[in-house]
Design goal:
385 residues; 35% helix; alpha/beta; Aspartate Aminotransferase, domain 2; 9 helices; seven-stranded mixed sheet; Aspartate Aminotransferase, domain 1; 14 strands; 2 domains; three-stranded antiparallel sheet
């Protein structure tokens, strides 16, 4: 039967993600709009965003934190173009975004000594193949596959290479062992539900040392340059951004960080995401037409939860019709104002992708689950009639 109660918040998109509970435009009234970001007030806001990020995530005091252009993509590209080439690199990919970084390194930078370690959607590569005496580039959480690394035990403490981690759908919902990570990137619009276009770039002392002692063979555009005269441009990591940031977006990020502190900081944020995952996992366990795309429970994401349809009727369809059927189900939920934007990523197997990060309420997911059952029943009936 068709459910009668809808989620209070139908925003389950995996990016941009839902705002924090209780968010309103009124929360942004103190944004210094029309003021220079280089004025005292602008610098103070940017510096506050950096320091609150450090406090909430527990980032070591000797790590630099910078606000950079072009979202997580910009932050990753800055790291790749500025740091790689000094030694061989292992590129690790098990979904579309990790595969994109492989393409950048092999086809754009065209590095000679590159090893690509890959796995199909739903699986994690054999991380023991990775040599952390080489540079390593990987995503902590595969946003388009719902597969995450369960830990960083495979990274040596006395490594010679740098570990470059795209953590955009992991930061604020999963524990990041910074002592194992030399570069960490993320964007505000993922777990914290911030506004788009700003990325965060976190550098360990080892990464700074590489920047100050190695010059890539290729030219760097101005927007990627983090050193001058062989020294780190410290201002970038104190709020003097490379280009003009949106002070409205900065205010929104500060609001999200303030909320994070009220729910217990990093620990509380992770607990919220874990509780959300548990709601979905309990439903999957008693539902015969659906399963997690991630095959191993310890690798299941608690933010971008990817589901596959395993009903024999659906599995008998060819790939094109599977894609059409899944999109039809997603459109039905959208038309009912129950769940927006929960289709699988375009490169991923047909199915569903439900954001369960820290800004989502478990009560909304509990109300969503019966609607998924109803939508699937409607879909199957329409195809088999």
């Amino acid at each position: 039967m068709k459910p009668t109660v809808k989620p209070a918040n139908p925003l389950f998109s995996s990016g941009p993600c839902a705002k924090r509970p209780g968010w309103t435009l009124e929360n942004l009234k103190d944004a210094p709009l029309g003021r220079s970001h280089r004025a005292k007030v602008g610098k103070a806001k940017l510096k506050e965003a950096i320091e609150k990020t450090r406090n909430v995530l527990g980032i070591p005091g000797d790590y630099r934190i910078g606000i950079v252009p072009a979202s997580d993509t910009g932050a990753v590209e800055m790291a790749l173009w500025s740091l790689l080439g000094a030694r061989g690199v292992d590129m690790v990919a098990w979904e579309s975004f990790g595969s994109g970084w492989v393409t950048d390194v092999t086809k754009q930078l065209k590095l000679d000594d590159v090893r690509t370690i890959k796995a199909d959607y739903g699986l994690l590569p054999d991380m023991t193949q990775i040599d952390s005496d080489r540079d390593v580039v990987f995503t902590w959480n595969g946003t388009t596959s719902g597969v995450r690394v369960p830990n960083a035990d495979w990274i040596k403490d006395d490594r010679a290479g740098l570990t470059i981690c795209d953590a955009t759908s992991a930061a604020f919902a999963m524990d990041l062992p910074f002592e194992k990570l030399d570069v960490v990137t993320f964007s505000w619009q993922k777990v914290m539900g911030g506004e788009a276009a700003h990325g965060m770039l976190i550098l360990s002392p080892r990464a700074v040392e590489r920047l100050e002692n190695y010059s890539p063979a290729w030219p760097l555009p101005k927007i990627f340059r983090m050193t001058k005269g062989g020294k780190l441009i410290e201002g970038i990591f104190e709020g003097a951004t490379i280009n003009t940031p949106s002070m409205l977006c900065v205010e929104d990020y500060l609001d999200a960080l303030a909320w994070a502190e009220t729910v217990g900081g990093q620990k509380g944020l992770k607990e919220r995401a874990n509780n959300n995952l548990a709601v979905i996992a309990d439903w999957v366990a008693k539902t015969d037409w659906v399963d997690f795309l991630a095959e191993e429970p310890e690798t299941r994401s608690n933010t971008s939860v990817c589901l596959k349809i395993v009903d024999p009727w659906f599995e008998a369809l060819d790939a094109d019709n599977q894609g059409k059927a899944a999109k039809q189900m997603v459109a039905l939920l959208d038309s009912e104002d129950v769940a927006y934007d929960i289709g699988a990523y375009r490169d991923a197997p047909a199915g569903l992708r439900i954001w369960a990060g820290s800004t989502i309420e478990a009560s909304d997911l509990e109300l969503l689950m019966p609607w998924l059952d109803w939508a699937f029943a409607e879909l199957k009936a329409s195809f088999t009639a």
